[in-house]
Each structure stands twice: as C-alpha cells, then as structure tokens.
Write the structure tokens for this entry.
Amino acid sequence: MVKKVNYYHLALWIRLALTLTELVLFLYVVSINPEKAVHGVRVLVPLAVLVGIWFRSNVARYLGAIWFLFAAGSVVWPLFSSGKVGSWRLAIWGLAVVALSLALIYILVFSKEFAKEFGKRSLDTRTH
C-alpha cells in the first residue's frame, strides 16, 4: 500500500536539506577565507524560514519562497554566466541548491495539498 505524501513534512525536510547544504558551503568558504563569514546570511535566513514554517507562519511561507527564488538565481547566475565552471564540486552544490529550491518553491506556493495541510495545522495550533 502506497502511503500518501505529507507535503508539510516534505517541505520541512527539503528546507532542512537546503539549510545543511548551505551550512556545508559556508563552512567550506570560511575555512578558505575567514573574511567571507558575512555569507552566513545564506545559512541564517533559510534556518529562520524553516523555523517559521515549523511554527506555521504564512509570512515565512511566502517570504521563504521569495528567498529561495533569489538564492537559486544567485547560484545559477555566477555558475553559468561566465561560460565556465571553476570547480565540479561547486557545480554539483549549485545544481543541488537550485533543484531543492525550485522543489520547495513549488510546494510552498503552488501545491494545493501543502496549502490544505498548512492551513489545517495553522487552525489546529490557533484553537489549542
């Protein structure tokens, strides 16, 4: 028997995967150049969105989708605008971030199942 996908949990797991991916990249960049610690915002904002979705905030849901679109674009642009990729590791990281971001944007904004589950959970927390 195939179990029905819970889009709310799927969104949380994808968000967690993106946060961990960003964290690994951040630690790698800071280990090479400690002055790049300012890029920690790429870890902190997704973490805040994860917590916001967990607490069922519509603001976090939609601002998170905008952030993920921006993050995906900020990865794609430098990787492919120069015509060459500096490192295959960065290319794989970039493609993973873009794929996960686009999947999460779709779930957060366009998925009717997620909207139902998210709304139901939001009502459940407000009535308790």
